[in-house]
Amino acid sequence: MAEKLVIIGNGMAPGRMLEELFEKAPGLYDVTIFNAEPRVNYDRIMLSPVLSGEKAYEDIVIHNDGWYAANGVTLHKGAKVTEVDRHAKTVTSANGITASYDKLVIATGSLPFIIPVPGHQLPGVLAYRDLDDVDNMLKIAAGKGRAIVIGAGLLGLEAAYGLKRQGMDVTVIHLMPTIMERQLDPAAAYLLEKALTERGIDIITKANTKQILGTDKVEGIELEDGRVIAGDMVIMAVGIRPASSLAKDAGIAVNRGIVVDDGMMTSDPNVFALGECAEHRGTCYGLVAPLYEAARVLADRLTGGSAEYHGSVVNTKLKVTGINLFSAGDFAEAPDREEIVLRDASAGIYKRLVLKDNKILGAVLYGETGDGSWFFDLMKRGTDISQMRETLIFGQSYQGGTPLDPMAAVAALPDDAEICGCNGVCKGKITSTISSKGLTSLDDVRAHTKASASCGSCTGLVEQLMTLTLGDSYNPAAVTPMCTCTELGHDDVRRLIKAKGLKTIPAVMQELEWKTSCGCAKCRPALNYYLVCDWPDEYADDYQSRYINERVHANIQKDGTYSVVPRMWGGVTNAAELRAIADVVDKFEIPLVKVTGGQRIDLLGIEKEDLPAVWSDLGKAGFVSGQAYAKGLRTVKTCVGSDWCRFGTQDSTGLGIRIEKFMWGSWTPAKLKLAVSGCPRNCAEATCKDIGVICVDSGFDIHFAGAAGLDIKGTEVLGLVKTENEALEYIVALTQMYREQARYLERIYKWAKRIGLDEIRRQIMTNEEKRKGYYERFVFSQSFAQMDPWSERVSGKDKHEFKPMATIGYSQAAE
Hints:
The chain is an alpha/beta fold.
């Protein structure tokens, strides 16, 4: 029978410990978790990007509900433990839940330190430790105003940056003469303060807070020197202390934190402590990398192993977009130490290494941090650097006096060299996982190892390791830059467009430091789509940044002529429409009329200059563009359904027409084809479409992520809904989720594989708030999208597109 393992706390450290435990010995324990927060485990390192708007909560979830269910874990959310009875071996929560244990892990984390100055209890005085704190900040930030951050350490500056990104004015108050004094020397602190000031953040050093002003809520602060700063919220970011009171009340040994040995055992052999609440050899760690090292040791001990934790050397990185900063070790001055410094003022680069006895004691890098992992590895190992002393400051690639291929430098790293500092992942873990699990994409590596899954600063190193491990079989297409105009990939560009509020192509290229003046044929269409999707009411669609078919609203053929496909709602037509098509065919001597697989009629062989006239005649019969050329909704294929077919269970034709009329005109990352079949016989072939519906007696089965082109793939089931209205809402919400998250030209089935089918089902089928939000944003965007481009061109818009070059030249010459 499995032993009972109870865990108090559901942070990143116990989450990593469970991953290791389940990998080593699945089924060994019956696991119960008490989480004081009302949610699942998430990446606290990424709270800063959530605050700045660069990520959402869903983006930082580590273990969703499905993970706990799959591993047989009982998770009590919103259940703060108030008592540990070591004699009865039980724990009890504030909401009355009691669980017995054989082994207990206390992982209660830490508590923020709130300076007890007058006014510290006013509404609007906030800490910065968890998602609830971020939510409270965002509520106040919605009214703009000014935020005051007390403390210019790592968390304080990240909070300041996030609130500035939310549109607030921000002032940072810091007691010491320089910011981040624990991690930076004065020179690097100067550069960082300058960069933050240039981003509009006011920083006041050597300032002490006397009191927080206000009656019913925060109105500002007063400093000891008499200065008064008005503000709408005050963020306390002045330090943390281990949350050890629960263990102390239970009679477990506590100093500053819960005292543990090298196996993470407390003074009770059945109780362990992990995370920020634990004190190991007199040290309490507040960064995640050492907590993950301890988590691996504890997982081993819980499976009968003898692994030991001997403490950690830590490094620091700041999560502020556009600022590269790395700090590790001890960089204080002393008579028996020497230093190597490199400064490049024009490039904003500063590097400093502190040495003693030919070993690195500390490193501070600003502006260029690519060698941070290498310096950190040399420091942890105590490597003698005397043979590379002259070139050491230039980094790993320059050892021996001549530049090395960066790939060779990565290959030379030992297996235990740390690659991902956020998650404590070493080179050997990454390469062995790639090989053993057959991983082929960066997303796979992130999912299985967590490397590059947090701040992303190690992404380049991870990609190089993938290339070294997989060789020619590695296809980095999904993680490479959008094009040669930028170093950024599609995901980063999409994220930064929203985070920075960029609403024109020139603004994107300027703010994101494009290498070319106007972009290229690869990036401009992608940027145009992202801006259309993100700012439908503010961005003017740039047709010159679209491909030729989308520019002229027809498909170019091999002979230079065009094909025109009028929209036939759900594949349904009538005699008047067919006569109009026949008249157009005769009038313009169209050589081929073809019925398409999407239940429409294609007119092929039309000269470019005749397109507006063809559209005009078709428009008089009520046709609009079928957008057979578009990265958007193409068709909704239907069968005749219950109105005519003896097997039909629902009105598939009516639903298909309703969906198509609701969704036409919307741009999507790639073409989108839908179908509705009236019964499981599936005459409309709904199970190989991007989104399909199978009508059944009990309602509507929604399918998605099929393919029937270069790739052949059946759909996945999204879920069953009971009514047409629900079917429309869920399909629209799924489409909007795809619109907002997919990379340009990424079909829905590829996007679904990358995001995860369970995650899509969770957001659309079970999270009503998410689904309603997607639906409402799609409806809003449609008020700007459903304008027939054919009728616009018939009225004269962009008429130069349809004039032969010779005619244009002659006309201009005559003028």
